[in-house]
Each structure stands twice: as C-alpha cells, then as structure tokens.
Amino acid sequence: MATIELILTEDIHRLGNAGDVVRVKAGYGRNFLLPQGKAMLATASRVKEIDHQRRVIDELQKKAIAGYQELARRVLAVNLTFDMQASPEGKLFGSVTNADIAARMAAAGVEIERRKIAIAEPIKTVGDHAVTIRLHREVQTPVVVKVVASGAPAEEAAAEPEGMETEERRDFDDER
Q: What is the pLDDT of residues 85-95, one digit of tens each?
C-alpha cells in the first residue's frame, strides 16, 4: 500500500498533534487531510522549519514555566485567611469565591486571574480548605484557604419593642 508523509497542522485524534510528522495511507492524506487543511506534505525544508519552530517554542515554554514557578513561590507567601460571619454551627453567611481569593492576592501584590483559581467545592464553612491555582498546565500550586468566624451576627434586637422590662419581654416573646 502506498503511504505518504505529512506534517499535521492541527491535533487529530488517534493520529497525532499539530507539528507531528506522520505516515498515512495516500488516499486518506490526499482525499481528507490535505483538502481540509489538517496537514501539509512533509518536504525536507518544511520538516526543518517545523523542527526549528518546535525548538523556539520549547525555549519560550521553558522561560514561561520558570516565570510561573517564581509566581507560584510568591503565591505561597500570601496569607489567605478570611474573617467571615458564620453561624454557631460553622456555616458561613455567604461563601468565599475565587474572586475573593484573587482580590486578596492582588492586595498582597500578586496578580492572579480568578479563572486560574480552582475551588473543588464552594467554601461555605469555617476551617481550612484546599484550593489549586493553575498558573500553567505544568505549574499548579496547592494553597490552603483558612476561614475563621468573626463572631455571631447582629442580634435581632431592633425587632423587639424598646422600653420593656425583662419580664414584659418574656411575655411579649411568648405571645409571638
């Protein structure tokens, strides 16, 4: 059977990723991959060009990863303790969101997009919660978000009539 060598221009399931040099049946290449723009013929000059581009991209990726690792060290230095109002059972009135975490980091001088902060489940209780910050596909930083209760919410004293003595208040509460 006749086969041809092609350079893929996009990722193709079960065949390869963009930039890979693959050997496919001639009919598949001529009738599908080439007309669809999913591949180009693998000439010697194109293979050299792709190899050069791949080396350049790898160098850029290494520099980017080094920068993200430095950013990850700075992220770990940020104190992520939130003082929130909570019920006596430890449930928060509201929740801590990825936007809250991003704002706390921005206040500490570390700019992180809120979309890069992955919270497994909503933070709605007091305690320590694990959060992952995905800076790059190869650089992920686990951090701990600590939530502490700031105290009981304001009493509903405004609903009670003022000027009543303790005994009158009890009678009034019983009538409700």
A: 999 999 999 99
